[in-house]
Write a structure and sequence with these properties.
Shape: globular
CATH topology: Rossmann fold
Number of strands: 7
Distance between the termini: 13 Å
CATH class: Alpha Beta
CATH architecture: 3-Layer(aba) Sandwich
Radius of gyration: 19 Å
Strand order of the largest sheet: 2-3-1-4-7
Strand content: 5-15%
Largest sheet: 5 strands, parallel
Length: about 220
Amino acid sequence: MRLMLLGGPGAGKGTQANFLTAHYGIPQISTGDMLRAQVKAGTELGLTAKKVMDSGGLVSDEIIIAMVRERITHPDCQPGYLFDGFPRTIPQAEALSRAAIPLDAVIEIAVDDTEIIRRLSGRRVHLPSGRTYHIQFNPPRVAGKDDITGEDLVHRDDDHDTTVAQRLAVYHAQTAPLIAYYQQAATAGHNRYIRIAGVGAVTQIQRQILAELSTD
């Protein structure tokens, strides 16, 4: 099962990625993890990437794709793999296609901007533990306080309305075009395209994804 997840920030991709990798016994392919592993191992690709990063540059799509091609040869990728957060742009998707890296299905977790802003702007975090609350969906027992320690919760800068709006603007400019790209690829028979409304109970969304993936 070779999968890709698409969707805006706060759409719930991370939750569904954890579920799908566990359900199918496949690894999640993270470009960040790959870069760190290649640099740590001192491979040719890792040394090339480290040189670029040390100079303050961005690692090229060609290097990233080469790392992906190497990563999917590992034994844990035999049952499949899941891409989440990559590709981020049309050029990266085109490079992935040129490299003939196969995809069985692209799954879009669709959530509108208003809901995403409501979800993210309502988050509150207990920084020492990482425990997360939501003022509407999962409020702490005492407003502004962690349930376990009673310490203050923090409204992170990343979760303020203006910052969320900026993140959404970047998503729509750079990543949202992948939706049309992979829809067209599906029409051409290169992959399946599955669109799931990312609203409702997490388990309900999981059941919908599994039902779609089990359909011939």
